[in-house]
Design a protein that fits this description.
Helix 8 crosses helix 10. Helices cover 38% and strands 17% of the residues. By secondary structure, the chain is α/β, with parallel strands linked by helices. The longest helix is centred in the middle third of the chain and has 18 residues. Bound molecules: flavin mononucleotide. The site of flavin mononucleotide has 24 residues, from strand 6.
Length: 328
């Protein structure tokens, strides 16, 4: 019988499928449901920097015992929920009391500021790890790429210093020097990197003249972007990689593990196909492992990484050439 266990950031996982941060992990009941459906770990819905900062500010203004919790909105309007800091900490405590799988808390950060203090509160509440969902949209023409990258470095360094539990960084691919930046970030002491986050994208309704949200959920075709970078970076970084975006089935999980990911996060496929998809994926992986005579995930993780693949140049190829594509 295939052994699906793996280790991510030192955390033992019963299998490599992690439920990514989303509205599907914003309550204790939902986390229990995810555990019962078979995932190896859960990343909780993100606590947003604005929410934490508002608590810090009101603590300063009103004294420690009379916090006010203004409402804050998630970046995906359809799935919003007011998520107060104390509620979040209580959710972590409850999850830890009621599930056995690792519970990873998530903070969405756009800058470095007083909120860093709350990472230790999250640790105290019992979270097994913290995932930092950092994003600076490089839209300000007055800021250089280096200044934007510094935010990621500052946030990672500050949080790593303030907690002892493993910290992972969830990033996007919006870097001009992605490999170098990822490498620098992996030197900060983080234990994991999530490649990649996927963002809310605007669209325009041409009849109503309104900006609307589009493509909230990923499609299976989107796996190729993270697959390339997982393969290119998995031998180079000083931390584990967890793949995210576009994994919709068992084959997707296996591809990312072959590329070198220690684990895989899934979100959109759970929204699209329900939690039953997790056991289907696990069965698929087990059968695939049996067919290829793999007893443990360690035997094939990284087998097709950039360093290990027979034809690594295929990961670097970005232009179509007639003879290569064979399409006319
Ligand atoms: C409805 C929804 C809510 C999400 N909320 C969060 C969030 O709070 N924090 C976060 O880091 N990522 C959030 N994400 C991003 C997912 O965790 C994941 O990175 C992204 O959807 C790509 O993975 P997928 O292709 O498996 O969906 C959200 C995604 C969706 C669809």
């Amino acid at each position: 019988m295939a052994d699906l266990t793996t280790k991510f950031m030192g955390l033992p996982l019963r299998n490599p499928i992690i439920a990514g941060s989303s509205g599907l992990s914003n309550s204790v009941e939902k986390v229990i449901e995810l555990e019962n459906s078979g995932v190896g770990a859960v990343v909780l819905k993100s606590l947003f920097e604005e929410q934490i900062k508002s608590q810090v500010n009101s603590a300063i203004q009103q004294g420690e015992n009379s916090y006010a919790y203004p409402e804050a909105q998630d970046y995906i309007g359809n799935y919003t929920r007011e998520n107060e800091v104390s509620e979040y900490l209580e959710m972590i405590r409850q999850c830890k009391a009621r599930v056995r799988i690792p519970v990873i808390a998530s903070i969405n950060c756009i800058s470095l500021s007083d909120w860093v203090y709350f990472a230790s509160k999250i640790q105290e509440a019992g979270a097994d790890a913290i995932e930092l969902n950092v994003f600076v949209l490089p839209s300000d023409p007055k800021r250089t790429g280096e200044q934007n990258e510094q935010v990621y470095l500052d946030v990672a360094l500050a949080i790593v210093k303030s907690v002892t539990i493993p910290v992972s960084l969830k990033i996007s691919y919006y870097f001009s020097g992605l490999s170098k930046t990822a490498l620098k970030l992996s030197w900060t002491g983080i234990k994991g990197m999530v490649l990649f986050n996927r963002f809310y994208s605007p669209d325009i309704d041409i009849e109503k003249f309104e900006i609307v949200s589009s493509n909230v959920l990923s499609t299976p075709e989107e796996i190729s972007l993270s697959l390339r970078w997982v393969a290119m970076l998995s031998d180079r970084l000083h931390c584990d990689i967890v793949a995210s975006t576009g994994v919709h089935d068992g084959a997707g999980v296996i591809k990312q593990l072959l590329a070198g990911a220690k684990a895989v996060q899934i979100t959109s496929c759970l929204y699209r196909n329900g939690l039953g998809t997790i056991s289907e994926m696990l069965t698929f992986i087990e059968k695939w492992m049996d067919r290829h005579s793999y007893k443990t995930t360690g035997e094939f993780i990284g087998k097709l990484s950039f360093k290990e693949a027979e034809n690594p140049a295929a990961y670097e190829r970005v232009q179509f050439m007639k003879y290569f594509a064979g399409i006319e």
